[in-house]
């Protein structure tokens, strides 16, 4: 029986790269593939290190492109930085996906629940960071609630984007490798 791993790996890498590149296309604020890339990477790569490195590399490289091409007017010179709160939310999404999606029998219902849950977690983490760092919100409970209230339209866009892109990424992988778990011949290496 021929090994299906290399074509599957190339397809999964291509899906992540396409999702990251889609961040450069015009879209509604926060309607993008960021959360879906974290979910998909954790579930689709057989090697744990790839499940962390590939989605983070895709996120960082697409951030570099966005910050230095689309939002270049806001920075003086080339901007190498990143928002730590976003990356913390991304890391927690990957970590939760390991426990909730990785190596389990695939279920669209489970994927939907994990997508909604991690989108909410990402919202709470990133808006907490906005409240903590922004002079727009007083450092009080009322200020924190105001930061969360101001972020609600972005939450709805994030949820819609994560649901759409998770469906596309996981659906594409399921089409390429129909198996009970997402990763064909799953083994930890």
From TrEMBL:
The chain crosses the membrane at residues 53-72, 78-101, 108-133, 145-170. InterPro entries: DUF6580. Signal peptide: none annotated. Keywords: Membrane, Transmembrane, Transmembrane helix. It comes from the Bacteria. The keyword Protein biosynthesis does not apply. This is ECF transporter S component. It comes from Neolewinella maritima.
